[in-house]
Task: structure prediction
Amino acid sequence: MDNLLDDVVQEDTYKIHNDFSNFLDLTNRPNIPLIEEYFSHPKARRVRESKTILSPSLSEFNKGIRNGRYLSSEYHNERRIQNALWRDWWRQTRAPFHATVKEIPKGEDIVEVRTIDIRGKDIGDFPTEYTISALRPHEIPVVGTYVHKDIIPGFAYRVRRNGTSDYLFDGEALVLRTIGKGYGKRLTFHSDAVENDNFFWSDSNPDEGFAFSIQVIFDGDKFDVLDCHRRRVAETQLITVGDKQEIKEVSLRKREINMFISVKMKCSLKFASLDHVPENLRGQVVDLATSGLARSQKTLSGWKAETVEIRNVHIPDLGSCCFRSSA
Result:
């Protein structure tokens, strides 16, 4: 259920380790195999700057976590080791991003947020129950054992660590390749690298979970423009696209999956010089901010979904039109 809130709820905070050696000791206790040389740069900088928290060196810290993960693959209990490390890492890095209680000044828009109660048994999974707060209207949740039914391999998603403004994978929308089985499900995304480290587990952020947002159109995408009679009137290229693309419907068939997503975009329209094109538009190039309903299709033979059309696009002097993929 959607709610309008007058403030941002203050969340519990986790204590950040105030000494880096203490953190290395913590990782040694559950036998988490980290190589200390990966952390030499942040440790040296901490001495110079007399810092007492880890956040100034998160980029180097991130690197160490990633490389430590590869080393752990040599151990039989890799899954337990990785989860122990990731859990502590998430809890340390989330603290700088915590929201604080604040009043929205008079006259400013009230932020729309949702609180969702979800149950694993509703999707035929473990009978776990969670309450996820502060998801944005276009986002869908992953937390603990639960992966929302509209999170489907082959479609591209941006992933936000819920409760923060921090996005995984540098904020890029990546195609989801696989969803693992079990209590903590490994979600693996596409990568061009030989060593793919674009993955995490559904239970890596146990208190807040993750917020997924679909992306089916991108800057630079090209389409043919059809009028209400399905006649070609123009070609278009998307200049910018809105990042709040919201899933409206998912249709599952035997050999394909169709998602219908509301989208907003700014596009450049190059009209054809044809008799059925309004005379004032023939041969013209027009920039237009508009919206529509995109249909993205994943077939059994393809590894990723393709946006085949955008319906209900209103164009002045033409009315409701359709953008059809020109690929």
In short: The two ends are 39 Å apart (CA to CA). The chain has a mean pLDDT of 77.
